[in-house]
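Write out structure tokens for Response regulator.
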Amino acid sequence: MSEIKIYIADDHQLLIDGLVSALKSYSNIKIIDVANDGKKVLNDIFLNKPDVLLLDLNMPQIDGLQVIEKVKANDKHIKLLVLSNYNAPHIIKEVQQKGADGYLLKNGSISELTKAIQTVYEGGSFFESVSTKKESSYFMDYFMKEYLLTKREHDILLLMAKGRSSFEIADNLFISVATVNTHRRNILKKLGLKRTSEVMNLAASKGWLKD
């Protein structure tokens, strides 16, 4: 059986350590390098020439979607298997369009992962069948990281999206109205918006309030 060279990229070192530990028992799999951010991946990968890149999407500096684009534009022989927490049809469709060879949820088993690795290595594709139930939660999490929103800003943003007043938000979160107004100004500034109605329109378009 041919040896499969694997490069692992994830922003959580604990997950990387777990994958390395689990995969080292497979004689046909060799971990050649790991990375915690997208920039390191792109600096290394064309020199290391792995057969399969295991890639998280929420990577610092350069995100996973950008990594997929750049890798596929420069070396189509490297297979890309996305490992994600998100059961999100929209993002699966997007990674397919950008050229990824597979998509696997992180709550799967090691045997399923090795099957996916073997499948994409041999030129096939491996995409999880998913539901739409948690698609909006993916968008919200990704959006928070993209715009550097804090957890408190996230909570206030969702209440703003529901049309709640500053007094209602303050009462709901047990904070002062002045604190709410400060957060509202910061949220609008980060999003490049001017009024709450724009936040409501944005939330509707992203489906944040479906759940």
